[in-house]
Design brief:
Helices cover 22% and strands 25% of the residues. By secondary structure, it is an alpha/beta fold. The strands form three sheets. The chain has a seven-stranded mixed sheet, covered by helices on one side. It has eight helices and 19 strands. Strand 1 and strand 2 form a beta hairpin.
């Protein structure tokens, strides 16, 4: 275990997760703790059961929707707003991943550490753009840290869906999207591409989409599947959680065309497993090149890697002259990619 008198020793790896001792606070802990900073609302980062939660106001609102019975003490911190706890200067910066997603910057004893949380570098109309923060130690995610993962432009992938809708106007199109982030980004992208028909949502996608609308996002004509005529749905565009595509729920649509929007769609076996006839490679995470670029741009002398393909990224960073260390945090299963 790192000691406080060592470099970066004020940020430790504990069984609960990354822990900053002078501030007595965990970042994205995997279990309930007295004090937590939460980078964003995905379930592998935001868990219920904490005593006090520090996060962006958007992330706090998302946690409130997802865990209505959980009532921690909360403190909202807008991007760039600073707070000092136990002598540690703390601020949040946009991570570009989903609404409210943040990197955590920590300054103590003349060192600056940045914890990325999940992030992407591509523009997303529903998430504030990632900001590069110069730091001494950068802790990066590594979900897609293999050279095979190079995401194509999202607009190109969206066009595949719209082409299919034009080619098969007599069929419903069911698009699998994660409920937080991907759903709302896809609504925006499909609208930006000029699709003006109503879009129907599976019940599991409605509350978070309404939350985004509450923050001012306009997704055009969006309606619940429930209560809609079968005849109207028969040729419609429908969004559902990826898991719903192959279950009983989707049998209400006769012979639908099925699509899934995810970074994992790069892997053919995953697309088949998900039942996606139309795999759309659209990710809310940095791809291989963007991970390498970001680690370099931070200017960090050392990079700790968590959350994914840690060894491959560590190897590439070391080859490029940065110090790198896989963290091997336990219990990390990506919620949304
Ligand atoms: Zn995430
Ligand atoms: Zn994650």
């Amino acid at each position: 275990m790192a000691r406080a008198d060592q470099k970066f020793g004020w940020l430790e790896l504990r069984p609960g997760g990354l822990y900053c001792a002078p501030a007595d606070i965990y970042i994205d802990p995997g279990r309930g703790v007295p004090n937590a900073i939460i980078t964003h609302g995905h379930a592998d980062h935001a868990r219920p059961g904490h005593g006090k939660v520090l996060a962006t106001p958007e992330t706090l609102a998302i946690m409130g929707v997802r865990y209505p019975a959980d009532t921690p003490e909360t403190q909202g911190l807008a991007y760039g707003e600073r707070i000092t706890i136990g002598g540690v200067n703390i601020w949040l910066a946009p991570a570009g991943h989903v609404l409210g997603s943040a990197q955590v910057a920590l300054e103590y004893g003349g060192e600056r550490i940045v914890v990325s949380g999940d992030y992407k570098r591509r523009p997303d109309p529903t998430a504030a753009a990632f900001e590069v923060i110069k730091c001494d130690l950068f802790i990066t995610e590594a979900t897609f840290a293999l050279p095979v993962f190079r995401h194509p432009p999202a607009e190109q992938e969206v066009q595949k869906l719209l082409t299919s809708i034009a080619q098969f106007p007599e069929q419903a199109h069911v698009l699998g999207v994660y409920g937080l982030g991907k759903c709302q980004r896809m609504l925006s992208l499909v609208r930006e591409a000029g699709f003006e028909e109503p879009i129907f949502l599976h019940g599991a996608l409605i509350k978070l989409t309404e939350l985004y609308q509450g923050f001012g996002f306009d997704f055009g004509d969006v309606r619940p599947v429930a209560g809609t005529d079968k005849a109207e749905l028969a040729t419609a565009l429908i969004f559902a959680p990826p898991s719903a595509i192959q279950d009983k729920w989707s049998r209400r649509f006769q012979n639908p065309r099925t699509a899934v929007a995810s970074g994992w769609m790069r892997v053919r076996a995953r697309a088949r497993q998900r039942g996606a006839e139309l795999p759309l490679v659209i990710s809310d995470h940095a791809d291989w090149d963007e991970l390498l670029m970001t680690c370099k741009e931070t200017g960090a002398e050392e990079v700790w890697i968590t959350h994914g393909r840690e060894d491959a990224l560590a190897h590439a960073l070391i080859a490029a002259g940065q110090r790198a260390r896989p963290l091997r945090l336990a219990g990390r299963e990506e919620e949304a990619a």
